[in-house]
Amino acid sequence: MKEILAVIRPFKVDEVKDALTQINIKGMTISEVKGFGRQKGHKEIYRGAEYQTDFIPKVEVKVVVEDTQVDEVIETIIAATKTGKIGDGKIFVLPVEEVIRIRTNEVGIEAL
To answer: CA triplet 26, 31, 33: central angle to 5 degrees?
Structure first.
């Protein structure tokens, strides 16, 4: 199993959710996060004063899938989020050693 962690633009969340649902992904976790990469923040104007923000709002989408689903999930996330502009985000793929469903004690793939 793998955990796919995607850091994306906030306005792309619904598109990603809908696209992953279309390929039969049954669950995901979404968190609002802040950070920066090559964008390095941006300038904003508040009450006429300009100031630099170092962290840009993003959304983190986490999905745990079988190894055989990884490529399809990655392609789906890219298709739903890619604008071709800086700040589109990143996708990380991490190994998952075990999953346990608390309610039923199911383990592994059955617990997904």
So the answer is: 150
Question: CATH number, domain at 37?
Answer: 3.30.70.120
Q: Decide if 51 contacts 43 (C-beta within 8 A).
A: yes
What are the counts of helices (DSSP H) followed by strands (DSSP E) for the chain? 2, 6
pLDDT band at 65 (very low <50, low <70, confident <90, very high): very high
Range of the domain at 19: 2-111
Number of domains in the chain: 1
Give percent of the chain with pLDDT exceeding 90: 72
Q: Quote the CA–CA distance of 47 and 32 in Å, as a whole number.
A: 25
Q: So what's the pLDDT on residue 42?
A: 62
Distance CA 3, CA 76 (A): 15
Enter the pTM of the model.
0.85
